[in-house]
Design goal:
Elements: E1 11-14, E2 30-31, E3 36-40, E4 46-51, E5 56-61, E6 67-72, E7 77-82, E8 87-92, E9 98-102, E10 114-115, E11 120-124, E12 132-136, E13 142-145, E14 165-166, E15 172-175, E16 182-185, E17 191-193, E18 214-216, E19 221-224, E20 231-236, E21 241-246, H1 249-254, E22 264-265, E23 271-272, E24 280-284, E25 291-295, H2 297-301, H3 307-311, E26 321-327, E27 330-335, E28 342-345, E29 382-387, E30 392-397, E31 426-427, H4 450-459
Parallel strand pairs: 30-31
Antiparallel strand pairs: 1-28, 2-3, 3-4, 4-5, 6-7, 7-8, 8-9, 10-11, 11-12, 12-13, 14-15, 15-16, 16-17, 18-19, 19-20, 20-21, 22-23, 23-24, 24-25, 26-27, 27-28, 29-30
Amino acid sequence: MSASQQPAWPKFKYLTNEVGGNLTKTRTMGLDASGKIHSLGYKTALIIETDTNKDTIVKKPCDTKGYIGTVDASDGYTYYMPAYSTTIPKLNRETGELTYDEKFPSIPQIRSGAEGNNGIIYMPTYTKTLKIITLDTATGEVNTITPEKPARNNFPACNHIWGAAADKKGEIYMPQVLGTNVAKIDKNGIFKYLEGAPVTSGVSGWTHKYIGAIYVEAVDKVFCLPRCGKRILVINCADDSYVEVNLPEDYLKVANKNKNFYGFLAPDGWVYSAFWADTLCFRINPKTLEIQWKDYTEDFTNGAANVKEGSGIMSLGTGYSTAALVKDDSVYLGLAGTNKAVKLEYEESKVSCVTESIVVSNTSYPSPSPSTVISNTSCPTASCNVSCASSTITCNTSCPSPSSTPSIVNCSSPSSCNVTCTEEICAVIIPTPSPTQPKSSCCTTTSSNSCCLWSRFVCGFKKGFCKK
């Protein structure tokens, strides 16, 4: 990706109102249909309610605390993971109602989870003897599995896991926090450790390597960002291989040891770190693995004498932010040890589905037709279906969330478009053609590659098919 095509860094904004206190306030975020984010307390019993329509925060009373991480389940509820609580709260995303289900006789030390097949949420524990706790969302039943210890058990007391992500097949990937292995639960619920080199993140000893896991469907990979490590772990879900990518040396020279809390897949398609004990942010392009970073110190300072005064943070150990939640073109960060909550605003999506041209370009070719508008995408796949009854070609995308930005989401090959109708065809294109360019997606180059040949075939298939 050239410099001109790289997405702009998001704009930093403090939300209205403040919530004081020196302790880390929350490590959870759940969004309801009205646009309100419900964050349950970590060290303090409270609920922080963020109104994304007004960009305000307010503190509400609560009788429980001790939650880290959430799972947006397919049953319409968001489940809050109990690290230091015996209850599993759940948010009805339609109504915004929170309920608390008592599940454990003692605190389970759960800090992450992911939903696999059949509505089962798998929750690894942050304990030296790893346990996988399952929650059946249909029945509410909780069970515990104790997996075998890994063959490479060079840290016998370090089997903790703090991060889980499910891929499109319902298989779950989990990096060890302190150990050197990567764990997986397959679609049948079978636990195993992946084969491969020791995962070190460039550090050794009792060091938090990776926390959190982020699945990017566009590349079918899981990205695990470091907390104290020096690398990014990338797991290929297609073949269970993995690689660690070094963070830039110039970034490591100035970054705090505690770099990130979880991270997130942003609206621009890149994976970003979330500010922990640092005001620096790094991001990685899931397709190219290019890594960049930016210093947001001036934004956190916000015109004050220093960062501490500007943000209200009392101690770096409490963090500048924690969890992250993506909504439309914005990312809301959980309120940690500061008084002010942060929002990151990304450039508004400039590409949308319209009914004014034809999809023929193959996105795997470096030179799409001149009328195609190119922009970043996090949509993983596209398939073209033809309906003779309605004489319409429709392109169906499966973006991971409504905030994703569709881009060149075109037919990948002639075989994915069955154009056999005899009537005139009206097509739907993604993305929007430039108004200054001709509304034609016919290939105009002299190249004889299959993309152009297919383009010429479609354009000549029916008179009036290409609008000029």
